[in-house]
Design goal:
With 171 residues, this protein is mostly helical. It is globular and about 50 Å long. The two termini are 23 Å apart. The chain has helices spanning 16-33, 41-59, 66-87, 91-113, 129-137, 143-167.
Length: 171
Amino acid sequence: MNRVFSSDDEWDAVTIWGILGYTAASLLILWLAHTEGRWVFLLDSANLAFHEAGHPFFSLFNERLTVYGGTIFQIAFPLAACISFYRRREALSCAFTMLWLGENLFNIAVYMADARTQILPLVGNGEHDWAEIFSRWGVLDWDTGIAGVVRMAGWLLIVFAGLWLWRHKRE
């Protein structure tokens, strides 16, 4: 259905099964993202592909931007999907893309927290994006603190999306 966004558009109603499905998926993803492996296979494989695609794309504009491209693309794809579903007033789909974005923030936080120690195995030439970014910004010593804020943002986004779904529950 091609609907153009306007303030008068009705949101698609969400059934209790949709809310339960979101809750189950959230709990599973939260558990997987916070266990030893910290890998949610389907989402993290896509996230890694988007991340790696961002580097060469941004290098087309400016070599200095290359290091930012991975994280920008990693955030841009779930955000674009979320905006698309929001504009079409599809509450459940919008919430699931917020879940994807929130889970993505967990991965970004893990990468950020590794900036000083650089223990994580890296794809590509082995340069650590966040060590470079935080060094440029003069905040390398704050890597774990900044990562904690980003991790909390992921949690808040996932919880917010679940609570937001109740607003669209079918009566």
